[in-house]
Automatic annotation (TrEMBL):
SUPFAM superfamilies: Six-hairpin glycosidases. GO terms for molecular function: alpha-L-rhamnosidase activity. Residues 809-877 form the Alpha-L-rhamnosidase C-terminal domain. InterPro entries: 6-hairpin_glycosidase_sf, 6hp_glycosidase-like_sf, Alpha_rhamnosid, Bac_rhamnosid6H, Bac_rhamnosid_C, Bac_rhamnosid_N, Ig-like_fold, Rhamnosid_concanavalin. Keywords: Hydrolase. Residues 462-806 form the Alpha-L-rhamnosidase six-hairpin glycosidase domain. It catalyses: Hydrolysis of terminal non-reducing alpha-L-rhamnose residues in alpha-L-rhamnosides. Pfam families: Bac_rhamnosid, Bac_rhamnosid6H, Bac_rhamnosid_C, Bac_rhamnosid_N, Ig_Rha78A_N. This is alpha-L-rhamnosidase. Residues 177-347 form the Bacterial alpha-L-rhamnosidase N-terminal domain. It comes from Parapedobacter composti.
Length: 919
């Protein structure tokens, strides 16, 4: 028997030797609680449990499970499931099984294991896993919020605010041997936590941002190993983040502000004799604002003066007599709730590709990649010398930074040397979006190895890989990958570099769906749904930006409608039914609000942005001036609302609101009739002014009269090929449907042409002009580059969805990929695709290539799932699996032949199909 190495997805690694049971080849791996990477301080009384089955055998399906949950590892090992023993449950469910045991209370530890009965036998018990409950009720919090509610002489509060970091400390005595210590903290805007001089955790920019008037996130840490019997010291640094807003006293009608940084912390210490002590934040703590972090501002940068370092301020025995007593301050407004999404972390590091000299005191670093994060520097110099780092995405012709597109963001970090040997420094409470760094005042000649680029984003797993025979598609995919990760900042933001960085809803309407093939973004987007819900007005309105750091309540369909499409994505891709239940009332409230306020003669009359960022007719224009390229906003709003009604009908059925479905269906019928009466030119078989978006939206959402679909589609193809030379002509809204629409209606070749173009306008044009992420504008290098963010994701539309579902042929047929449809496109000019997606059930693989008329395809289907596999072939007689006729292969059942494909049902396992193709 071999031992297996199990990586628990809990933020810590357990290497477990596990002797396989008699079955020998079916194993339970990767137990997950609420799918968290760190299951400490869970904030729900009914957490969901999931597990993954691993086996090389074909046809492994779960028949039943038994879950045991105990209050201690000893009880679990002894078979005493004092919290919950599910008994044998005959069910295939292995994802999101809701805890149904004894009521759970704050700070409770829970230990669990599972065993399975499968089509290949019983697995035996898994190794145990653990979660703990958070502080579930307000009264569970001890102590008070503390802070310093004022600025100091060296601070400045205006449009370009400067506020130094606050340093807090508290000493306490642990009177005997410590059995366990758990710490709960929320530091607003951002915090770093220390115990006895050691930093706790590898999180950065914590906690994740929220509307602090509605919700405040806290984090939980097991700090047992960091404490000792006797004297201990707690240290916390508070940065400004989005709590102390970057632009004070500037456009208060638009920019929401919250106040000065503040802290709340509870430390629960359990001693060996079973007694417990609590250390909490109160006015016995000491604080100073006069430390080395002189200012920290997400737009403008961080300044650190090492000559003002405080020594061992976070260790016992430090003399803090000159420090101020902490103030008891007003609560932020929002109830502290457990952060269930991942922390931001330093996820990658990059070395500069080159260092070039601009003049005697200025050098330019080229990181080789547009990235998000910061620079760590190593330097040796004289006390008081200042090094300035300034960041940009591109250079001017003279080699200096191009800064115009950053608007008024100063994006400058400053480090003042203390002059004691080699010094290493990086900022704590800011991030930048950049490829190039201007280094001013560095002592001597800087070298590449004096700097490290720290790439920062949410600590989520990369779950997808994708490669094809086409170099343009491959580079666009890499650009998308870097752009997406760079804009994951505890919420999805639009860009990471200029004075914006806002969570615009419309940027992710379909984009989040594509991202879900590449990243495990379920928790990020579940948290974002909460942000959107909390931003809803009492009458039902939803803003275009949520959390509503900017007050953009303009009413719209396409941007706020993202609330529904994200919920749909979470259910389809991750099986997240709970989010549908939670948000259905708020989604219905918004739908009713928009219908009540903006319906006229059956048409939704309100649209705000149109088909944003349609490629202009000239490389020099930011927005098109040609009315023939612009789509009627009321057409966009009405077609989008019709699609949202389809989703609401589905959500109502799923969540038990069946009484709502008749109303949704009736309104859809009314809307369809009014829409076609208003916009459809029956004689021409085209909509409105005939833009690709005007025809694509009704075709994609089912508004086209029955039997007229091909006429409408023919206009899309003609417009794309004849009028636009085989180039894209849609903006943000139309591009959400474009690539799938072309493939679904029989022209994947046109989609492939759009995907591989390298001339304007196209994704490849960005690549051709040196982009390493995705631009905000199709012609961002020529149409007033000052308006162009070089790291935006909104123009991706459904491109990544098309990559995976159509080129690779990986599509969820049931939630969370419990059932999969695998149907790759066979396109002239594309010779192979290698793609994987790690679903909650395991890795799905699709690797195909053409070989002299044969279609060679390796398919991997995870245990406890099935796939419908469409093999290009004239019929079943032309299809082999592992060199034998496919119809007789283990785990393979022939279903039918349709449209040049032999279709099979395939059980779990890895298969090697061989079919035929004709271009």
């Amino acid at each position: 028997m071999k031992f297996m190495m199990i990586q628990w997805l809990f933020g810590w690694l357990l290497l477990l030797g596990y002797t396989l049971p008699a079955l020998g080849q079916v194993k339970v791996i990767n137990l997950r609680t609420e799918l968290l990477s760190n299951p400490l301080g869970i904030g729900t009384r009914s957490p969901r449990l999931s597990w993954e089955i691993n086996s090389e055998r074909r046809g492994v399906e779960q028949l039943a499970y038994q879950l045991c949950v105990a209050s201690s590892p000893e009880k679990l090992a002894a078979g005493d499931a004092d919290l919950w023993d599910s008994g044998r449950v005959d069910s295939r469910q292995s994802v999101h099984v809701a805890y149904a045991g004894a009521p759970l209370v704050s700070r409770q530890d829970c230990f669990w294991k599972v065993r399975l009965w499968t089509t290949q036998g019983e697995t035996g018990w898994s190794e145990p896993a653990h979660w703990s409950m958070g502080l579930l009720d307000y009264v569970d919090w001890r102590g008070r919020w503390i802070g310093l509610d004022r600025a100091f002489p060296w601070d400045r509060e205006d449009q370009f605010s400067r506020l130094s970091a606050r340093y807090f400390r508290k000493e306490f005595d642990a009177r005997q041997t410590i059995k366990q210590a758990v710490l709960y903290i929320t530091g607003l805007g951002l915090y770093e936590l220390y115990l006895n001089g050691e930093r706790i955790g590898d999180q950065v920019l914590a906690p994740v941002p929220t509307d602090y008037l509605k919700d405040v996130k806290y984090n939980t840490f097991d700090v047992t190993a960091h404490l000792r019997e006797g004297r201990n010291a707690i240290g916390v640094i508070l940065g400004n983040g989005r709590y102390y807003t970057m632009r004070q006293a500037y456009k208060p009608h638009k920019i929401k502000t919250f106040g000065y940084p503040k802290l709340r912390m509870n430390l629960y210490v359990t001693y060996a004799d079973g007694t417990m002590e609590t250390v909490h934040s109160d006015d016995s703590w000491k604080v100073t604002p006069d430390g080395p972090i002189r200012t920290n501002n997400e737009y403008d940068g961080e300044e650190y003066d090492a000559t003002k370092e405080l020594g061992a301020w976070h260790q016992p025995g430090y003399d803090d007599t000159d420090w101020l007593p902490a103030m008891l301050v007003q609560e932020p407004g929002g109830m502290p709730t457990a952060q269930m999404s991942e922390h931001m972390k330093v996820m990658k590091t990059l070395q500069p590709r080159s260092v070039s000299r601009l003049n005697d005191s200025v050098h330019i670093l080229d990181m080789g990649q547009n990235m998000t994060g910061w620079i760590q520097l190593r330097v040796k110099g004289i006390r008081g010398q200042r090094i300035k780092l300034r960041f940009a995405e591109s250079l001017q012709d003279d080699g200096s930074l191009y800064l115009a597109n950053l608007r008024d963001a100063k994006v400058t970090d400053v480090y003042t040397l203390k002059g004691s040997g080699t010094e290493i420094w990086e900022p704590r409470f800011v991030y930048h979006g950049f490829r190039f760094v201007e280094v001013t005042g560095y002592p001597g000649v800087p070298a590449a190895d004096d700097f490290v680029g720290k790439v920062v984003y949410d600590g989520i797993a990369t779950t997808g890989s994708f490669e094809t025979s086409d170099s343009t598609i491959n580079q666009v995919f890499r650009n998308a990958y870097w752009g997406i990760l760079g804009n994951y900042k505890g919420m999805p933001v639009d860009c990471p570099q200029r004075n914006e960085r806002q969570p615009w809803l419309g940027d992710r309407t379909t984009g989040a769906y594509g991202e879900s093939f590449v990243f495990d973004n379920a928790k990020l987007y579940a948290k974002w749904l909460d942000d959107i819900q909390q931003a809803q007005t009492t009458d039902g309105g939803i803003p275009d930006v949520a959390p509503a750091f900017w007050r953009y309540y303009g009413d719209n369909v396409t941007w706020p409608g993202t609330y529904l499409t994200i919920a749909d994505m979470l259910y389809n891709q991750f099986g997240d039914f709970r989010s549908l239940q939670k948000h259905y009332p708020s989604m219905k409230k918004w739908m009713d609000y928009m219908r009540r306020k903006y319906t006229q003669n059956g048409i939704i009359t309100k649209d705000k942005y149109g088909d944003w960022c349609v490629p202009p007719e000239s490389l020099e224009l930011i927005h098109s001036r040609d009315s023939a390229r612009r789509t009627d906003g009321q057409l966009i709003a009405t077609a989008t609302y019709y699609r949202l009604l389809q989703l609401m009908d589905r959500f109502a059925r799923l969540t038990g609101h069946d009484s709502d479905t008749m109303a949704y269906q009736q309104y859809r019928r009314e809307l369809k009739a009014a829409f076609n009466s208003r916009f459809f030119d029956s004689a021409a078989g085209s909509y409105s002014n005939g833009t690709v978006t005007a025809n694509l939206l009704p075709l994609s959402v089912g508004l086209v009269p029955q039997g007229r679909e091909q006429e409408v589609f023919a206009h899309i193809v003609r417009k794309t090929l004849a009028e636009y030379g085989g180039h894209i002509s849609t903006g943000v809204v139309g591009t959400q449907w474009l690539m799938r629409g072309l493939s679904r209606h029989g022209r994947p070749d046109v989609a492939f042409r759009l995907a591989t173009n390298r001339t304007y306008p196209s994704w490849g044009y960005m690549v051709e002009n040196g982009a390493t992420t995705i631009w905000e504008l199709w012609n961002g290098n020529t149409a007033n580059p000052a308006m162009n963010s070089q790291n935006h994701v909104m123009l991706l539309g459904d491109l990544l969805v098309w990559y995976y579902e159509h080129l690779a042929g990986i599509k969820a047929a049931e939630p969370a990929f419990a059932r999969i449809v695998m149907k790759p496109e066979v396109i002239d000019g594309l010779d192979f695709v290698h793609a994987t997606h790690r679903s909650l059930f395991g890795t799905i693989g699709s690797h195909w290539k053409k070989d002299n008329g044969r279609f060679l395809w390796e398919v991997t289907v995870p245990p406890n799932t099935r796939a419908e596999v469409h093999v290009p072939a004239a019929g079943p007689a032309d299809v082999l699996e592992s060199g034998q006729p496919a119809s007789g292969a283990e785990g393979v059942t022939y279903l039918k032949t349709q449209n040049g494909r032999a279709i099979y049902q395939v059980l779990s396992g890895t298969y090697r199909f061989e079919g035929t193709y004709r271009n």
